[in-house]
């Protein structure tokens, strides 16, 4: 039976959160009375200023940081929050201010203060693994805290058992690097040199870590000054009224345009992580029971005025893993997870153009209630369970929510999308210096009910792979190929997006590392669409030592001259591939996205020729498609690909929840 997450009560004193820390700080409330008058033109000005400041902070970080992961891959985010810790901006997700307000009273903060943390279990759910370092700066007006500017990003190395601080076989968070609870990193403009020295001393890349932190602190301080100017120009009451209006608008927009598309009722679906780095591959279940209620009662504590609401129940999620795929989600009522998952709901917008206009800020929080199982699951791990590969869970939840909503709306949601995977090499360069090259390679997004999926995208907004020109000039290898992985997108009326194929030839002996999933379980297809191709790495391609590498690897040896071939996941397909028009298959053949064999086996299209000159035999294709339809048996609503049967205890090809 599911239960709403409740903070356990301490023997005396205020309530505590799942980490045993106080939760009595004030957060999530309105700044003005409901219905307060606000100038709509000022709301537009304030909203534009917030977006501009957020972008300016991120631009400053990208231009002044040093590590490839921050500067070039752009694996960081900025966010702006009000004094009630509500996220005001919605261009991308960000961490939470809650742990700072919990440990440092707002009335004791001073201008020039900078707070820092990366402790997963003391972050109130806002930090997923230790390489994500978070910087928070308060904004002042007339001597009082009125807002916060925050940045967090994935840094190269924060210590731990392996370079990059993501040991794939960790069984404790203590193996994953230096864990820092909320501290004051700058005190009224004066950096805490002792704390900085401790952090850089624990890192294998101390210079880049120091430079990145300096860039983030300076950028957030700059952002705080910009916001102080906004308050000085228009006054605190007017600006805070605009803050409430911005969030109210989001709440009403999602209530009217998104929640209204989901029929009232209860729907269940689940998906899986395939391995945790310690135990043998198995189905690590993540289940969502989604209940849409049209007339939920008002709840003043969450600013919910009553009406339609979504209840997301994670009961049925598997026990916490021995390895590092756990995610701490059950904090502050799942506040972080609500904002993380809500972008999936935008797919219900009337048009793709409208979907792109919808931001996700704190305004969506009142519309979603989350219910967590007891402590000790993948989403409610118990300290010190490891978490460095928590992307296997938190990114899978995006797909689980998409799948369960698809069941509610007859498949009018995208098929499964790519998930983050970290790959890289490390060793010594020709000068004998240590190096670490790690990047986040994307894959294909899922086919949609109106269009194919996108090729080689990243689920992290604005992130990108490292430029070949940069990596070849800095690291001892050559990138011999970087292109699309042919046939990787799941077949469908609308094809899944393609993944990457990247060939790296090492010039010096090195070690390969990978933190990836979807190497067994592919991105699923929906409503007749087929699963995409899974993640795959081969070392010494075509050589005497050719071998397939596990998707979780810390130190796979690679000799000088050997080639590493990385193929990332393709997105799932949407709809029956035999309904895909012949001219679209022909276009895919000409563009090199589908092979001649793939066209025959997946789409029932008989073709000949080469890329730019392709000829389709229409009559033979129609005959082949007719035979393929006749030979079909009943198929589930979701196609998981052949990997599911490898891990399912009974060898089943589909879950009980995959049928409509």
TrEMBL record:
Residues 39-577 form the Hydantoinase B/oxoprolinase domain. Pfam families: Hydantoinase_B. Residues 1-33, 631-660 are annotated as: Disordered. One of its GO terms (biological process) is glutathione metabolic process. GO terms for cellular component: cytosol. One of its GO terms (molecular function) is 5-oxoprolinase (ATP-hydrolyzing) activity. This is Methylhydantoinase. The lineage of its organism: Bacteria, Bacillati, Actinomycetota, Actinomycetes, Micrococcales.
């Amino acid at each position: 039976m599911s239960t709403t997450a409740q903070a356990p009560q301490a023997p005396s004193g205020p309530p505590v959160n799942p980490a045993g820390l106080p939760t009595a700080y004030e957060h999530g409330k309105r700044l003005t009375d409901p219905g307060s008058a606000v100038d709509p033109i000022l709301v537009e000005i304030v909203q534009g200023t917030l977006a501009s400041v957020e972008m300016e902070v991120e631009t400053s970080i990208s231009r002044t940081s040093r590590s490839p992961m921050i500067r070039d891959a752009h694996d960081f985010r900025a966010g702006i929050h009000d004094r009630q810790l509500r996220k005001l901006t919605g261009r991308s997700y960000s961490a939470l201010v809650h742990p700072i307000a919990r440990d440092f009273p707002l009335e004791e903060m001073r201008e020039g203060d900078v707070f820092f943390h990366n402790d997963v279990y003391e972050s109130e759910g806002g930090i997923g693994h230790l390489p994500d370092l978070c910087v928070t700066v308060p904004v002042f007006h007339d001597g009082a805290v009125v807002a916060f500017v925050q940045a967090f990003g994935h840094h190269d190395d924060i210590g731990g058992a392996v370079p990059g601080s993501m040991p794939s076989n960790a069984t404790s968070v203590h193996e994953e690097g230096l864990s820092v609870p909320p501290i004051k990193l700058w005190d009224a403009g004066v950096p805490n040199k002792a704390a900085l020295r401790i952090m850089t001393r624990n890192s294998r890349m101390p210079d880049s870590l120091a430079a990145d932190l300096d860039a983030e602190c300076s950028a957030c301080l700059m952002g705080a000054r910009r916001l102080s100017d906004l308050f000085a120009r228009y006054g605190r009451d007017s600006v805070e009224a605009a803050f409430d209006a911005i969030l109210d608008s989001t709440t009403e927009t999602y209530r009217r345009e998104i929640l209204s598309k989901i029929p009232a009722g209860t729907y269940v679906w689940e998906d899986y992580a395939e391995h945790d780095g310690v135990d043998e591959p198995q189905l690590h279940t993540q289940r969502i029971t989604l209940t849409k209620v049209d007339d939920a009662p008002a709840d003043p504590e969450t600013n919910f005025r009553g009406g339609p609401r979504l209840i997301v129940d994670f009961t049925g999620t598997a026990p916490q893993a021995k390895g590092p795929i756990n995610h701490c989600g059950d904090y502050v009522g799942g506040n972080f997870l609500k904002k993380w998952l809500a972008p999936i709901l935008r797919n219900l917008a009337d048009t793709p153009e409208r979907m792109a206009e919808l931001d996700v800020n704190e305004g969506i929080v009142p519309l979603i209630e989350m219910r967590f199982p007891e402590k000790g699951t993948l989403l409610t791990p118990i300290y010190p369970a490891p978490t460095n590969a928590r992307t296997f869970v938190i990114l899978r939840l995006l797909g689980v929510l998409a799948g369960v909503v698809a069941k509610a709306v007859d498949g009018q949601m995208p098929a499964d999308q790519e998930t983050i995977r970290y790959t890289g090499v490390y060793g010594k360069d020709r000068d004998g210096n240590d190096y670490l090259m790690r990047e986040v390679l994307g894959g294909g997004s899922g086919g949609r009910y109106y269009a194919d999926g996108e090729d080689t995208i990243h689920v992290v907004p604005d992130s990108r792979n490292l430029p070949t020109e940069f990596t070849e000039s800095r690291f001892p290898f050559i990138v011999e190929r970087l292109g699309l992985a042919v046939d990787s997108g799941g077949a469908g009326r609308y094809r899944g997006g393609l993944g990457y194929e990247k060939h790296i030839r090492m010039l010096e002996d090195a070690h390969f590392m990978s933190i990836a999933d979807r190497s067994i379980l592919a991105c699923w297809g929906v409503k007749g669409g087929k699963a995409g191709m899974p993640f795959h790495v081969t070392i010494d391609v075509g050589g005497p030592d050719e071998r397939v590498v596990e998707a979780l690897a810390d130190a796979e040896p690679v000799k000088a001259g050997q080639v590493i071939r990385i193929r990332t996941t393709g997105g799932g397909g949407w709809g029956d591939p035999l309904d895909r028009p012949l001219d679209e298959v022909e276009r895919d053949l000409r563009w090199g996205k589908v092979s001649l064999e793939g066209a025959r086996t997946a789409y029932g299209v008989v073709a000949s020729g080469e890329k730019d000159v392709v000829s389709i035999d229409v009559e033979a294709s129609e005959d082949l498609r007719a035979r393929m339809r006749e030979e079909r048996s009943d198929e589930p609503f979701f196609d998981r690909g052949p990997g599911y049967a490898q891990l399912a205890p009974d060898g089943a090809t589909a879950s009980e929840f995959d049928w409509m």
